TrEMBL record:
Domain HTH lysR-type: 1-59
Protein name: LysR family transcriptional regulator
Family as reported in the entry's similarity comment: Belongs to the LysR transcriptional regulatory family.
SUPFAM superfamilies: Periplasmic binding protein-like II (SSF53850), Winged helix' DNA-binding domain (SSF46785)
Cross-referenced CDD domains: PBP2_CrgA_like (cd08422)
Transmembrane segments: none
Keywords: DNA-binding, Transcription, Transcription regulation
Coiled coil (residue ranges): none
Species whose genome carries this gene: Sinorhizobium numidicum
Span of the signal peptide: none
């Protein structure tokens, strides 16, 4: 038996409270997780978990072993990092979920990462709503705005920048809004993210204003909103990743530039910082570095 692997598995089961969740997190089958825990119990000659068909709980012995198990695993990890050559190759699959605009931004930059790590595989999942990170076996998830789930580790890597835009064909014959109060009477295309499809928030640096809107078109994907805006369907709030090329080319107009959409934190969430595999840590660092390369995502104020 690999005692360190068994300890890692036991710690993940204890943390998630579930064999199936631990299996998903460790990329193992549920029977394999169960066998490792049973082997560890046999090796230590003590029961670590109470198991029923509906519940899982630590025994007193299981509670006592956790601090010692953590010290062993952390010591092995530290030893590995100390002896590992600089530029070690990451390998294995990383499941990454992120909103569509950031997904497009990252997919343009993934080639270099994959070339540096030939054994690494990245599964990109475009998703606007928060996932069940543990239950779905997601390694990393990029979220916009506040992160409400306190059970997840959250690392802020940047800030959004968005523009209120419209196609010239839509603005023809209309008075473009100059303040949030001017939005009434305009056709709005709404990007529904995390259940929010009925309000927009704007900030001029001093004041923040939330405006209730009555959109005739709502989509749960930013790319669909982008295409509808280009077609002249109305006003839309778009990430700079999607909007900037079209603003520069004249296909979209930056409307209300003195009162832009409120910026939101960009965070990466994951189940645990303990025993993070090199493959996951490599992709996490890649995400942070990629965001830092874009000045519109770096700070809380746009130049």
């Amino acid at each position: 038996m690999d005692i360190v692997s068994a300890l890692r598995t036991f710690l993940r089961v204890a943390e998630t409270g579930s064999f199936s969740a631990a299996a998903a997190d460790l990329n193992l089958t549920q029977p394999a997780v169960s066998r490792q825990v049973s082997a560890l119990e046999a090796h230590l000659n003590t029961r670590l978990l109470h198991r029923t068909t509906t519940a899982l709980a630590l025994t007193a012995e299981g509670e006592r072993i956790i601090p010692m198990a953590l010290r062993v695993v952390e010591a092995v990890d530290a030893l590995g990092e100390t002896t590992c050559a600089e530029g070690a190759m990451a390998s294995g699959k990383v499941r990454l979920t992120l909103p569509a605009p950031l997904g497009l931004y990252m997919s343009d930059r993934l080639t270099g990462l994959l070339e540096r790590h030939p054994g690494l595989h990245v599964e990109l999942i475009f998703r606007e709503e928060p996932s069940d990170v543990v239950g779905e076996g997601i390694d990393l998830e990029v979220r916009l705005g506040p992160v409400a789930d306190s059970s997840l580790i959250c690392r802020r890597i940047g800030w959004t920048t968005a523009f209120l835009v419209a196609a010239p064909s839509y603005l023809e014959g209309r008075i473009a809004p100059e303040t949030p109060n001017d939005l009434s009477g305009h056709e709005c295309i709404c990007y529904r993210r995390a259940g929010n499809g009925r309000s927009w928030s704007f900030s001029n640096g001093a004041d923040e204003v939330a405006v209730r809107i009555a959109p005739r078109l709502i989509a749960d994907n930013a790319v669909a909103v982008h295409r509808a805006a280009l077609a002249g369907s109305g006003l839309a709030v778009l990430s700079h990743i999607l909007a900037c090329p079209d603003i520069e080319a004249g296909r979209l107009v930056n409307v209300m530039p003195d009162f832009p959409p409120t910026r939101l934190p960009i965070s990466v969430v994951y189940a645990s910082r303990r025993n993070m595999p090199l493959r996951v840590r490599t992709v996490l660092d890649f995400l942070a570095d990629a965001v830092s390369e874009d000045p519109l995502m770096v700070s809380t104020s746009v130049p």
